[in-house]
Write a structure and sequence with these properties.
By secondary structure, the chain is mainly beta. Helix content is 12%, strand content 56%. A five-stranded antiparallel sheet has the order 6-4-10-16-15, with helices on one face. Strands 5-7-3-17 form a four-stranded antiparallel sheet, with no helix packed on it. A four-stranded antiparallel sheet has the order 12-11-14-13, with no helix packed on it. It is flat.
């Protein structure tokens, strides 16, 4: 309802940016009696590590170390070592050449083979639906938004799908079709079961372990009451280094 010439778009844009810190860029455009608003969010500031705070590097998981790249700190493990979660990998307490103690922000990449296990229950049978040749058509006529049936078709089905079609004649004609659906239960064969297990496994690998490299995957199955239980044992190679701050008074 505002008068177009009374809107100062540039001033409004500046006020909106100052009022909302999440706005990185905004543009107000007036065309005819419509204003369009284009907004882009401000890019978040990247997290910058605090290299002044002393810290150690500890294992965030159990594993067998495959490679060590230490940038700062004193390495306390070696390639091939087995470690458990919480073990000290790189110390932030370093002895200098002058035989004094220096506290540093330890930094390292410690790659290790880590075991993970997942379990999936897959039904032994599944249902699928298909359309049959049985169909019932019902017709309705419409005049000035009033509709009334033009046919007497009462036959219906336990499972069905509906579709409708409108035709603009001198009067509006609506055809509603009800088609019977058949339901079939199929037991899983081995090939289908293997595909389902592999699909579940790959979803886990892609979405839950995107930064890890798959080393091996072992699948075992057992039969439950109404499902197949798939047990999958993985070995992923991943960085297990986790910073752990400490106080120099500890």
């Amino acid at each position: 309802g505002s008068y177009i010439n009374s809107i100062d778009t540039e001033n409004t844009e500046r006020k909106l940016i100052l009022k909302n810190e999440q706005i990185g860029w905004i543009s107000l455009n007036i065309m005819g009696g419509t204003m369009s608003v284009n907004i882009e969010e401000k890019a978040p500031k990247p997290d910058t590590p605090d290299f002044k705070t002393p810290c150690n590097i500890k294992a965030n998981n159990d594993g067998v170390i495959t490679s060590i790249k230490t940038a700062r700190g004193e390495t306390k493990v070696m390639k091939g070592s087995g470690v458990v979660k919480g073990d000290l990998l790189v110390s932030g307490i370093v002895e200098t050449k002058q035989e004094t103690i220096e506290y540093v922000h330890a930094s390292a990449e410690i790659m290790a083979d880590v075991i993970y296990k997942k379990e999936y229950a897959i039904p032994q049978s599944y249902e699928y639906y298909s359309l049959t040749d049985n169909r019932t058509d019902r017709y309705m006529c419409g005049i000035l938004n009033f509709y009334f049936p033009c046919s007497l078709s009462f036959k219906s089905y336990d499972d069905s799908v509906f579709a409708s079609r409108k035709e603009k004649l001198p009067i509006e004609l609506i055809t509603q079709s009800e088609t019977e659906v058949s339901r079939t239960e199929v037991n899983l064969d081995k090939a289908t079961l293997d595909k389902k297990i592999l699909a579940q496994s790959m979803l886990y690998e892609v979405f839950e372990k995107p930064e890890s490299r798959l080393v091996s995957r072992k699948i075992t199955t057992k039969t439950g009451s109404d499902s197949i239980i798939a047990e999958i044992s993985y070995i992923f190679n991943e960085n297990i280094a986790q910073t752990s701050e400490f106080s120099v008074t500890d």
